[in-house]
Amino acid sequence: MSTIQTILFDCDNTLVLSEELAFEACADLANEILAAHDVPDKYTGPQLMSEFVGQNFRGMMVSLKAKYKYEMSDPDLERYVSLEEDRVIAKLKQSLKPCVGVDEELEKLAKSNKYQLTVVSSSALRRVKASLEKVGQDKYFNPDHIFSAATSLPKPTSKPDPAIYLHAMKVLGKTADQCVAVEDSKSGATAAYRAHIPTIGYTGSYEPQKQEKMKKVLQDAGCAIIMNDWSEFEGALEKIEKGEV
Asked: What parts of the sequence cross the membrane (predicted)?
C-alpha cells in the first residue's frame, strides 16, 4: 500500500474547459501562418484540436512546419508563441469555465490537508495561472507548485515528453510512487506514464460519443484507472492507494 502525498493535475480540460476556446484562437493564428507560407490549407478549432490535442502551441508549430515543409526562424517562432499566448489568454479571460464537479473535489482535498496539490501542464505558465485565476481555483495551489512544460524547463518541451513531470517531482522532492497524476489526453497520460507516475484518466470533458473511445486511448497510454466524472475521483484515488489497480 503506497503513501500518496502529491496530486499532479493537468490543467486544460482536466481542471478547466479551455481546449475548445484555446484551439479557436490557435486556429486563427495557424491559418495566418500557413497563408504567410503560401499553404492553402485552413484549420478550424476542432480540426486542430483533434490533430494536436495535448500539445502546446510551440509543439503544434513544429508539427505543422514538418507537415507542410516550410521554414520558420527561431525569432519568428518565439514571436508567434508569444502572440498565441496573448490571444488565448484574452479568450479564456472572457469565457472560461471549470470542468464540471472539479471544484467540489478540490475543496474536499484542500480541507483534508492530506495531499500537496500541484498543476503540471504543457501550456505556458502565464496561461495556466490566468486560467486558474479566472475560475477561482488559484486558491488551491501554491504558485511555486504550478509547472509548465513551455515555461518551467531550461529547454521548452511539450507532453508526451515526461520532462515536466520529472522536473516537478525533483522540485517537490517526491518519488513517482508518492504521486498520482490526473490527465485527459493521450500525450499527457503518456508523459505521466513515462515518468512512472500512477495516473487517473479523465474523459468527462469530451463529447459523450467520444468518451468510450477516449477511455481506451487513455488506458492504452498507461492510465491505471479511468473516471468519467469528478465525483469518481475519491474512489479512483483510493484504489490506487490500496494497490487495487
From this structure: none
